[in-house]
Amino acid sequence: MTGNAPSFAIEAVAGEGEGAIALQLAGDWVQGQTVPGFGALRDQLAGRELSQLQLQADDLGDWDSLLMAFLLQCHNYCREREIDLDTHGLPANARQLLAVATSVAPHQPPARRQQHWWQAGNPLRVLRAVRGDLRESLGFFGDICIGLARLCAGRANTRWADFRHFCYQAGPNAFAIISLTSVLVGMILAYLGAVQLQQFGAGVYVADLVVIGMLREMGVLMTAVVMAGRTGAAYAAQLGTMQTNDEIDAITTLGVSPVEFLVLPRLLALVVMMPLLVIYANLLGMLGGAIVSGGLGISMLQYISQAQEAIAVSHITVGLVKSVIFAVLIAIAGCRSGLYSGRSSAAVGQAATEAVVTALIYLIVADAAINIFFQHVEFW
Amino acid sequence: MSEPAVIEVQGLCMAFGSNVIQRDLDFRVERGDIFVIMGGSGCGKSTLLRHLLGLLRPASGDILYSGESFVRASQDRRAAMRRRWGITYQSGGLFSAMTLGQNIALPLQLYTRYSAGEIRDIVDYKLSLVGLGGYQDYLPAQISGGMRKRGALARAIALDPEILFFDEPSAGLDPISSRLLDELILQLKESLGATVVMVTHELDSIFAIATNSVYLDAASRTRIAGGDPRWLRDHSEQPVVRQFLSRELAPAGDAQSE
Fold first, then answer.
1. Ramachandran category for residue B23: left, alpha or beta (phi over 0 → left; psi -120 to 50 → alpha)
2. CA of B165: which chain A residue's CA is closest?
3. Which of A269, A380, B190, B209 is deepest in the core (most CB within 10 A)?
4. Which residue in B196, B97, B81 sits closest to A248, CA to CA?
């Protein structure tokens, strides 16, 4: 590294009275050199009664943006304190750059109340945020109800081609992943139960556990979780991108409700496909259970006859009722996040995340509530 | 007053929460005008357009279309009024999941009783009007930015609208395409007998086609001039407006005193 170390020095200007100070800039103010910070100058100037600061660059060597950044800070310092900054001693191009950089006064952002981390967790604030969220969700739900009513009256602008497209997306396209998860969940249930039940010599009842567990709970819940991550997030991303692309505005100003045009086909597709997927998932789950039971010494015949006894209309009904409710919740969470998303790429990502997180919370809460309800009406 | 103005804005105040964008806006757009909304960056031009389109709710004031309030109109009435408009957005606003042909067919399917075959022919014709004949089956992502703008224009004129709204129609286009688009707008406007409202700061376009305008000032947050832009350039009492229209820098003294 060659060159002279950059430095500055201040000295009184002869014949200009007390307040005038000359700032001598010297050396190479370039990348690779240790450039003195503006703080050092401020410390030296502190406590002096200044009226004028003359910049002088007689010994200045090479310079780049580092010098300009330093000079800009000088300028701002002088402007705040109403000190006259004399730039005539600078090289002509540096003077010009400084003039351009200072031609528009820096924007003063409005004072924002600083938020501390402990305030973010303030329960009142969280409650208020949740309340706002809830109100928006309810409003959205209301819009959907109005849209459905108009659809029944035959006045809604919902396109059936879109509905078929989304059915295909939510149904057949999801078969592979649903197959994998439900077989595995069935196997997990069987393992879990078999180890415990065999201690009582009741190993054959593993079929009951798998059947009831899948039909009432795990089949529908796992399907819903997969669909929330797969389809709910996709809905949010689709609608969010449409928002950034002015497409939602275009739909609104065509005189068409975005809820009817965009949300209803997605919602209805999910409501139609979810119960079918759940039936499929239940069958595969029971198959998974059978595989494990076979491995644990329960014959296929025993498993099937035991399972037949366990299957009841009530279990199937509970699963299907849940599947419809979950489908509505996933679609609402996804579409709402997308429709109210911001207009940047980051906002679309956030909308997709929000869609999945909200959907999962809805699912768990709704599942608990539905279970309690069915418990109380003794639908077993 | 014989005929109510096509658009009349009365005391419009636009705000996001407590942040006022523009206040006390009053102006009229007459039938057959090419009306330009002008102003420096960030003064609320696009926000004003979004208010005119009913996408944002005014903080106060009213917007009348042919003498009828849009702000206070019922949902159905608004939809009916919107059917007489054609709009292109800054980014085009074409539906990205549909082909160009489907985009233009959509308003026709929604609001007319044409048969499928007739709609196909009309789509052909509208695309030819904007010089995109034969591009029916292309998705918006498969064509260039300038073509997307023209495609959006074709969708805007699908229903032979009475009012055409353009948000920065020529932004991001090369000078020739931008000139061609101006001429296209002028020709369509004349043959459709429509009124045009556009947000733009392309001076060439403004002088080439505009007949009336409103200038929004960012500093005082209100309308400070209006009228024929050519007249404003030479005779406006507001130095800011003359400078804007003649592309002049403010004298150093003025900028400081602001």
1. beta
2. A253
3. A269
4. B97
Residues of A in contact with B55 (CB under 8 A): 249, 252-253
Query: Would the CB atoms of A246 and B85 count as touching at under 8 Å?
Result: no
Q: Do A254 and B50 touch (CB under 8 A)?
A: no
| Domains of chain A, first to last | 7-101 (3.30.750.24), 142-376 (no CATH)
Residue B148 maps to a domain: yes
The yes/no answer to whether this complex scores an ipTM above 0.85 is: no
**Residue of chain A whose Cα is closest to the Cα of B88:** A250
How does strand B19-29 pair with strand A20-29? unpaired
Tens of pLDDT, residues A6-18: 888 888 776 666 6
A109 touches chain B (CB under 8 A): no
**Any A CB within 8 A of B78 CB:** yes
How many residue contacts between A and B have a Cβ separation below 8 Å?
Answer: 51
Give the pair of three-digit tokens for residue B247: 């592309």
**A247:B96 CB<8 A:** yes
Percent of chain A having pLDDT more than 90?
48
Across A44-48, A273-277, B181-185, the highest mean pLDDT is recorded for A273-277
- DSSP of chain B, one letter per residue? --S--SEEEEEEEEEETTEEEEEEEEEEE-TT-EEEEEESTTSSHHHHHHHHTTSS--SEEEEEETTEESTT--HHHHHHHHTTEEEEBTTB---TTS-HHHHHHHHHHHH----HHHHHHHHHHHHHHTT-TT-TT--GGGS-HHHHHHHHHHHHTTT--SEEEEESTTTT--HHHHHHHHHHHHHHHHHHT-EEEEE---HHHHHHH-SEEEEEETTTTEEEEES-HHHHHHH-S-HHHHHHHHT-PPPHHHHHH-
Residue B61 is assigned to a structural domain of this protein? no
A241 — contact with chain B (CB < 8 Å)? yes
A245 in contact with chain B, both atoms CB, cutoff 8 A: yes
Q: What is the CATH number of the domain that holds B145?
A: 3.40.50.300
B89 at the A interface (CB within 8 A)? yes
CA angle in degrees (0–180, nearest 5) for B210-B215-B221: 160
Asked if B87 and A253 come within 8 Å (Cβ–Cβ), the reply is: yes
Full residue range of the structural domain in which residue B50 is found: 31-55+78-250
CB contact under 8 A, A255 and B89: no
Taking a C-beta distance cutoff of 8 angstroms, is the pair A55, A94 a contact?
no
Contact B37, B213 (CB under 8 A): yes
List all residues 6 or more positions away from A292 whose beta carbon is below 8 Å from its beta carbon: A186, A187, A190, A191, A194, A206
* φ/ψ bin of B107: left (φ > 0), alpha (ψ from -120 to 50), beta (otherwise): alpha
Question: Chain A closest CA to B83's CA: distance in Å?
Answer: 6
Q: Considering its fold, how many domains does chain B have in total? A: 1
Q: Read off φ and ψ for residue A319, nearest 5 degrees.
A: -60, -45
Residue written as tokens 């990205």?
B96
* Chain-centre distance for alpha carbon A1: 48
DSSP-derived 3-state class of residue A23: strand
Residue in chain A closest to B104 (alpha carbons) equals: A254
The string of pLDDT tens digits covering residues A257-294 is: 899 999 999 999 999 999 999 999 999 999 999 999 98
Element (DSSP H or E) covering residue A12: strand A7-12
Distance CA B64, CA B72 (A): 10
